[in-house]
Amino acid sequence: MTTSTSLVYLIALPLFGATILLLAGRRADKWGHLLATALSASSFGVGLYQLSQMLSRPTEERAVGQKLFSWINVGTFNVDAGLLLDQLSICFVLLITGVGTLIHIYSISYMSHDENRRRFFAYLNLFIAAMLLLVLGDSYLNLYVGWEGVGLASYLLIGFWNQKPAYATASKKAFVMNRIGDMGLSFAIMIAFATLGTVSFSGVEEASHTASKAALTAIGVMLLVAATGKSAQFPLQAWLGDAMAGPTPVSALIHAATMVTAGVYLIIRSNFIFDAAPTAQLLVVIVGAITLLFGAFIGTAKDDIKKALAASTMSQIGYMILGAGLGPAGYAFAIMHLLTHGFFKAGMFLGAGSVMHGMNDQVDMRRYGALRKFMPITFITFGLGYLAIIGVPPFAGFYSKDLIIETAFNAGGVKGILLGSTALLGAAITAFYMTRVMVLTFTSKERWEENQHPHESPILMWLPMAILAIGSVTTGFLFTRGDALANWLNPVFGEHGEGHEEHLFEPIVVSGMALVAVAIGVAIAIMKYQLSEVDSVAPQNVSIFTRIARKDLMQDSFNEAVFMRPGQKLTSLLVRGDESVVDGAVRGIGRTALGAGAVLRKTQTGFARSYAALILIGAIALIAGIWVVTQ
Q1: Per residue in 352-405, pLDDT tens?
Q2: What's the CA gap between 514 and 424, in Å, rounded?
Q3: Average pLDDT value over all residues in the chain
Q4: Nearest CA to 478 among 490, 491, 465, 487?
Q5: What is the pLDDT of residue 393?
Q6: Are 281 and 406 part of one and the same domain?
Q7: Is 82 helix (H, G, I), strand (E, B) or coil?
Q8: Are the C-beta atoms of residues 473 and 388 closer than 8 Å to each other?
Q9: In the Cβ-directed half-sphere of 1, how many Cα atoms lie within 13 Å?
Q10: In the chain, pLDDT over 90 holds for what percent of residues?
Q11: What is the average per-residue pLDDT within 292-303?
């Protein structure tokens, strides 16, 4: 690995912007958004420069590192604050800064009437800086700093409109559930140091060849816990829908392109651990398979356009986690789906914001309809993202999702059949609920109120949507042409980067099955929502499945019954125990001392004859004691 002296600029530029905007206060209101956007774009420019430098070097010399300073030096625990840029992290750097800059541009117009726009852009820059540190850190401890920084920035952005109690509650919910997941990363770091003696990626990889399987399994499971929290995967997925309380650009940045993919990055960056710990790797597969169906089922019943897209995000991240859990055969495909998803899902979230902009912030899709006539650019850009996510060729999702489905089938035996069928079912449900979103919003009959006047968004909003739509069309083909992305990432996975040799189904067969599944989902949605009358108010006389799906498959009720209520009772019991035992003991000692003092106080009469009598009694007792002892 070669060294570099310029990696720090990737992080320093947006961090500088956040610092200036937060310290300058209201003085930066007029230009703060421009500074933040320029610095994010500059960071993207540095990323492109680093990519060009990387391409100019031989494959084995493309990874570069930079030591910033000696951070921790205590006994045998030595950690440098250092950065690592390799073929994996450069993908994330360009995604974070590229999509992030487009979202900055979109936000200039979207947040133009918000009196705290300058603070919003400061938080966006802070988030970009923290996310870059997360993917550039050269050790689990450096990654952890960025991991927590992202958690802080997401809390600030989700709760940006915290004057609304529900929004403040949503940000706290996201923060708390992410902290639960973060405990997993903390434990993983501690176990790695205790058993392997190092927390750097290179050190852990080297030590993993001789470490015990039990230690590696424990580290892998704890890393998975961290990933489930940050990436909204089962069982820590309940926060994602509520996080839609934040401004829509936040949803595009955090919940489509960057933060929710951090768990996927963590697992794939730790490929050497999971390759050596089959049990932990199997758990990754199970979590991904459950979540891709979990999110898809929720998406079928959501009328809030942002929450429907949030459920979709949960499901698509499930595909990525599934791909990552399939081991060397799936790592590159998981990253491919992550990158393509970053384009089409960010574009659709921004499209949702454009629809809200034209519909007086209405989010209920049952109050939309026929918007294609009034918002043609939004319709086209959103539609291209829709075709990409459901997997219609030649759009991006067709390539990346089909490769994960194919790899799942090729996992072998009953496991392969179960995983492949699950992924295929998820594709059908995805086609259904995304067609539902498309039809209810753009192609069905008008259902909006008389005071609403839908209109197209300004250029600063639709231009980023158009650029992202281009990515939705082209990236899948570009990444798979000549196995470009897989070959690019192969040095990161080293000798493990080989796929399955057996093929349960040929690729053309898998693609055919996927397209049939998509066609079925699309057809059902069109019959139900395009060819039938749609109520402007959600019907209450629905199946129990729909009612459960509307309530996010009872995830909040489950957490409340299993964790919150017992936790409250345990806390109440501990409080009573503290009051009766700890405080009771302290108060008992105090009462005893007061009682003894009250008794002794009675001996202090102030009369000389009383004191003389006590002296006489004491002398007699002393003489009697001496006499007894000497007999």
Answers
A1: 999 999 999 899 999 998 999 999 999 999 999 999 999 999 999 999 999 999
A2: 6
A3: 91
A4: 487
A5: 93
A6: yes
A7: strand
A8: yes
A9: 16
A10: 71
A11: 94
Query: From CA 325, how far away is CA 319, in angstroms rounded?
Result: 10
Look at strands 64-74 and 77-85 and give their pairing: antiparallel
Contact 331, 272 (CB under 8 A): no
pLDDT of residue 22: 95
As a whole number of angstroms, the distance between CA 483 and CA 506 comes to 17
Q: Which domain holds residue 568?
A: 559-630
Residues 427 and 565 in one domain: no
Q: Is residue 54 part of a domain?
A: no
Are 242 and 306 in contact by the 8 Å Cβ rule? The answer is no
CA distance 302 to 139: 40
Instruction: Look at the alpha carbons of 454, 455, 461, 465 in this order and tell me if their dihedral is positive or negative.
Output: positive
Structure tokens at 564: 């919150």
Kindly report whether the peptide bond that precedes residue 376 is cis, defined as omega within 30 degrees of 0: no
Same-domain check for residues 374 and 344: yes
Q: For 584-598, give the DSSP string.
A: HHHHHHHHHHHHHHH
CA 49 to CA 47: how far, in whole Å? 5
Together in a domain, 294 and 389? yes
Residues 424 and 362 reside in one and the same domain: yes
Q: CA 221 to CA 185: how far, in whole Å?
A: 10
Tell me how far CA of residue 397 lies from CA of 1, 294, 335, 405, 479, in angstroms. Answer: 34, 19, 12, 12, 11
Task: Using CB atoms within 10 Å of the CB of residue 4, give its burial: 0 to 12 exposed, 13 to 18 middle, 19+ buried.
Answer: middle
End-to-end CA distance of the chain: 93
Residue 296 covered by a domain: yes
Q: How far apart are CA 572 and CA 560, in angstroms?
A: 16
3-class SS of residue 77: strand
- Using a 10 angstrom Cβ sphere, with 0-12 exposed, 13-18 middle and 19 or more buried, the burial of residue 38 is middle
pLDDT in tens, 525-540: 999 999 988 888 888 8
| In the predicted structure, residue 97 carries a pLDDT above the cut 50 | yes
Any domain includes 300: yes
- Nearest Cα to Cα of residue 143 among 208, 200, 190, 88: 200
Q: What is the token pair recorded at 495?
A: 């000798």
DSSP string for 272-284: HHHHT-HHHHHHH
Handedness of CA 300, 302, 304, 308 (dihedral sign): negative
CA distance 311 to 618: 87
Long-range CB pairs of 111-119 (<8 Å, 24+ gap) are 111/33, 111/247, 111/249, 116/160, 117/29, 117/32, 117/33, 118/21, 118/24, 118/26, 118/28, 118/29, 118/32, 118/33, 119/21, 119/22, 119/160
Which of 39, 45, 176, 46 has its CA nearest to residue 121? 39
The CA distance from 631 to 621, in Å, is 16
In a shared domain, residues 397 and 325: yes
Of 10-14, 69-73, 149-153, the one with minimum mean pLDDT is: 69-73
In angstroms, the CA 213 to CA 209 distance is: 10
User: Are both 348 and 490 inside the same structural domain?
Assistant: yes
